[in-house]
Specification:
mainly alpha, 3-stranded antiparallel β-sheet, two-stranded antiparallel sheet, 5 strands
């Protein structure tokens, strides 16, 4: 894929703060950490475990809804709706997180790229990226390319043609970001739009102990409104969450463009489209997009 000229959004915080992982359970217990199973089970986060009082009317795990979510994120992350073209994407966007790559922006400085390449090596030993594992472990937590240049980007693009690597990207996206976000949204009684709002927030901010993480955003939202599972109004709560998200975004220079909230998610919310039904029209960085 050619290097994009359009600006990409800022990345999430360094995930060195994330806690170790425990086995997946029906309720969320912990978020993201090292190690993989042959087929990664969801590693979930220390979110609230209130029982859901109302079943979601539309689930983001429905294949059509999930594809919409991937397109929405790709419009903000890659200025394109073709999210499947991003398996081979890789560049340093100068945000202090090293290389950003793949369908969800795995970063060499935040741990998730390392975990992805480890999983790929488990599933296909001796692959073209396996030789970079020692370097990826050393640069984790930094913006350094030491041991990766000059051929890492070329080898990433080569690996991206491999279905095994593509599936590894899908599985890590789901394990680290999509599944925890959707599960917490369901726990809060949110429908498809709310599930997407949580997912997009985790994609950008990750989840850890810092004040701009997903959990911190959610805590701040809960100070202003209650989610449906706690007897609150869904629209009011989602506005509170998006307000808290914007505060977190503006706290970091790389996140200061809030159009993915203002002219996308807030547009859907103001229209009352809580099930994220098509057609959808929105803008990111001023560029218009439509899903029919």
């Amino acid at each position: 894929m050619p290097i994009l000229s359009a600006p990409r959004s800022g990345r999430r915080v360094l995930r060195l703060l994330l806690a170790p992982v425990v086995a997946a359970a029906p309720a969320l217990v912990l978020f993201a950490g090292p190690g993989h199973a042959a087929v990664p089970a969801p590693r979930l986060s220390a979110f609230s475990q209130e029982p859901v009082t109302a079943a979601a009317a539309a689930d983001l795990t429905d294949p059509r809804k999930k594809d919409i979510a991937m397109q929405l994120v790709s419009s903000a992350e890659n200025s394109s709706l073709n999210w499947k073209a991003q398996y081979r994407y890789i560049e340093d966007i100068d945000d202090g997180r090293g290389y950003t790559a793949g369908i969800i922006g795995f970063c060499s400085g935040t741990g998730d790229m390392l975990e992805l390449v480890e999983l790929y090596a488990e599933r296909k030993p001796g692959n073209v990226l396996a030789k970079y594992l020692p370097a990826l472990r050393k640069v984790d937590g930094t913006d350094s390319h030491k041991g990766l240049d000059p051929n890492y980007t070329k080898d990433w693009a080569t690996a991206a043609k491999d279905k095994v690597f593509q599936q590894a990207q899908n599985d890590e996206r789901d394990r680290v970001y999509f599944n925890p976000a959707v599960q917490q949204a369901k726990t809060d009684g949110l429908r498809a739009l709310g599930q997407f709002v949580y997912y997009d927030a985790i994609v950008m901010h990750g989840d850890g102990g810092d004040s701009e993480s997903f959990s911190a955003i959610r805590r701040n939202a809960l100070k202003k409104a209650k989610p449906p599972a706690q007897g609150g109004d869904e629209v009011k709560y989602l506005h509170a969450f998006l307000d808290a998200r914007k505060v977190a975004m503006k706290a970091e220079e790389a996140h200061e463009d809030t159009s993915r909230v203002d002219t996308a998610q807030r547009v859907f919310l103001n229209k009352g489209n809580l099930d994220l039904d098509t057609p959808l029209s929105w803008k990111v960085y001023g560029d218009p997009y439509t899903i029919g």
